[in-house]
Amino acid sequence: MCTGNCAKCLGGALIPLTVFGFLANILLFFPGGKVIDNNEHLSEEVWFFGGILGSGVLVLLPANLFLGLRESDCCRCCGSERCGNRFAMFASILFAVIGFLGAGYSFITSAFSIKKGPKCLMDNNEWGYPFHNGDYLSDKDLWSKCREPEHVISWNLTLFSILLIVAVMQMLLCAIQVVNGLLGTVCVDCQCCGCCRGYGRV
């Protein structure tokens, strides 16, 4: 598959992943599927916007660029509209790195939040983080430490896990585009001006 078409496929795959990231992050503002009265009762990691900023905006930018990439037309080099294919593929590498870092940011915040656990109303009638070092992941009996919001543990765990999986897939796709972009930059078939002269174009 040519590098341009490969980039388009990668861009097409990244778009729905960014949508999942957006939606998962938005739903985290409604713990247990309910509107919370005080925003201070939300887990801190929700405000890091891992799905909106990291897996969302910072991945959406390279995804749109990948979708717009075109293959070079060898006989239309030297001032033609497609002569910048090398530069476009090189630019896609830079944007892929940005997307990789954005997804990496979402991955780190999601992993940290899963280990830390959600913020909830504890038995002492105070809001805080009752879990330590992810102990609640292996012992479901500890979930009783959270009184409110209802089902907040499974809610946060599910959504942050989705963000974690989305981030991994996005990092993988962006890493593939880095390799694909390098191939498109170094191994592009167009001989540019030499080719154009062969067709009587200077």
From TrEMBL:
One CC-aspect GO term: membrane
Pfam family membership, one: L6_membrane
Main location per the UniProt record: membrane
Spans through the membrane: 12-31, 46-67, 87-108, 152-173
Topology in the lipid bilayer: Multi-pass membrane protein
InterPro entries, per the entry: L6_membrane
Family the entry assigns: Belongs to the L6 tetraspanin family.
Protein name: Transmembrane 4 L6 family member 4
Organism from which the protein derives: Pteropus vampyrus
